[in-house]
Specification:
The protein has helices at 11-14, 18-32, 36-48, 58-66, 68-80, 138-158, 167-197, 206-223, 225-244, 250-266, 280-298, and strands at 90-92, 101-102, 106-107, 116-118. The strands form 2 sheets. A two-stranded antiparallel ribbon has the order 1-4. The N and C termini lie far apart (55 Å). It is mainly alpha-helical and 299 residues long. It has 2 domains: 11-80, no CATH class; 90-298, no CATH class. The radius of gyration is 23 Å and the shape is globular. It has 11 helices and 4 strands; from the N terminus they run αααααββββαααααα. Residues 93, 95-96, 100, 108, 110-111, 115 line the site of one zinc ion.
C-alpha cells in the first residue's frame, strides 16, 4: 500500500513545496483510481504551471519523489491514455453513412469500403497523440507503447483466419481483424515518426531513440504482411458473397464492386499502396537501418 506516496527521500524532495506535494498527491489519487483522462489533465496543467518539471529529468524527478512503482504505473496510464476524438483510432464515414457503399452499385472510396475512416488526431492509434504526452516522459511512454503493441500483435498474429457462418459475417470479422492489426502497427509508426521529428534530441537520448525505432521496425517487419493477407481473405469472402447472391440483387452488385475494388488495392506494389494501411515512416526507418548495416559491413 502506498499510504504516504509522496516520499521525501532526498534533500531536494525535503524542500518540496506544499503546492507540489498536493499536486503529486492529486495525480497519484487519479492514477490509483485508473482515471487516465484526469492523470493526463493534471499532469499537463501542473507542467504548464511549472509545478512539475518538463525536461528529460522528469522521470527521475518523479521516481525520487513517488518511488519506482508509482512512477511506472503513472507512465503505464499515460501510455494507454486514449485519443479524445475517436474510438480505437477510427471514425464513422460520413460519405457512405458507415455502409461502405453508395447505393450498392459503387464502393465508397473514402473509407476503402470499410465504413470507417482513420482518425487524423491520433493517426489511427486510438491513443493520445504526442502533443498530449507530458514532455520528459515521451520516450518512456513510447517504449511502453511499443511493448504493448508487440504483445497485442503477437496475439493477433496467432488468430487463424476467423471462421464465420456466412460470407458477409466473414467479411466483417476480417475487417475487424484488419483494423486491430493496423491500429497496433500505427502505434509503432507514431513512435518512429517521433524519432524522425525530434531533430533536437539531446545527444544523451539519441541511443534510446534509436533503440525505440529499431524495436518498432523489428516488430512491424513480422506484422505488416498480415494486413494484405487479411484483405485477401476479405476479397475471397466477397467472391463467395457474389457466388451465393442472386444475380442483379443488391448483395450481388455490392459484392462484385468490392471484388473489383479490393483486387485493385492488392494489385499495387506494395499491396495497399497509398491507403492508410501503408506505413511509409516505418518503411523509411527500415530502409535507413538496412543502409546502416550495409555501410557497417563495408567498413
Ligand atoms: Zn465510406
Ligand atoms: Zn483518434
Amino acid at each position: 500500500m502506498e499510504r504516504s506516496p509522496v516520499k521525501t527521500k532526498n534533500s531536494s524532495a525535503d524542500n518540496l513545496g506544499e503546492e507540489t506535494k498536493q499536486a503529486l498527491e492529486a495525480v497519484l489519487k487519479a492514477s490509483r483510481m485508473g482515471d487516465h483522462e484526469e492523470v493526463l489533465r493534471l499532469f499537463l496543467k501542473d507542467q504548464a504551471q511549472h509545478i512539475f518539471p518538463k525536461g528529460q529529468h522528469t522521470l527521475k524527478w518523479l521516481t525520487d519523489r513517488i518511488g519506482r512503482r508509482a512512477t511506472s504505473r503513472l507512465v503505464g496510464i499515460l501510455s494507454e491514455a486514449p485519443c479524445f476524438n475517436c474510438r480505437h483510432g477510427l471514425l464513422g464515414c460520413d460519405n457512405c453513412e458507415n455502409t461502405g457503399h453508395l447505393g450498392y452499385d459503387f464502393v465508397c472510396e473514402w473509407c476503402l469500403s470499410l465504413g470507417r475512416v482513420p482518425c487524423g488526431f491520433c493517426d489511427c492509434t486510438g491513443l493520445a497523440s504526442i502533443d498530449f504526452i507530458p514532455l520528459g516522459l515521451r520516450l518512456a511512454v513510447f517504449a511502453i507503447r511499443i511493448k504493448n503493441a508487440e504483445k497485442r500483435l503477437d496475439g493477433l498474429l496467432q488468430i487463424p483466419t476467423p471462421s464465420a457462418e456466412s460470407a458477409v459475417a466473414a467479411f466483417n470479422k476480417r475487417a475487424e481483424l484488419l483494423f486491430a492489426l493496423n491500429r497496433e502497427i500505427s502505434v509503432l509508426q507514431t513512435t518512429v515518426g517521433v524519432a524522425g521529428d525530434l531533430v533536437t534530441v539531446p545527444r544523451n537520448l539519441r541511443g534510446r531513440v534509436t533503440r525505440i525505432t529499431n524495436e518498432a521496425v523489428r516488430i512491424a517487419a513480422k506484422s505488416t504482411r498480415r494486413l494484405s493477407t487479411t484483405v485477401e481473405t476479405m476479397l475471397n469472402a466477397c467472391k463467395l458473397c457474389a457466388e451465393n447472391a442472386q444475380r442483379g440483387s443488391k448483395a450481388h452488385k455490392l459484392a462484385m464492386a468490392r471484388v473489383k475494388y479490393f483486387g485493385a488495392l492488392l494489385d499495387t506494389d506494395p499491396p495497399l499502396k497509398g491507403t492508410y494501411f501503408e506505413h511509409p515512416l516505418l518503411t523509411k526507418a527500415a530502409d535507413r537501418l538496412t543502409q546502416k548495416k550495409k555501410s557497417r559491413k563495408r567498413r
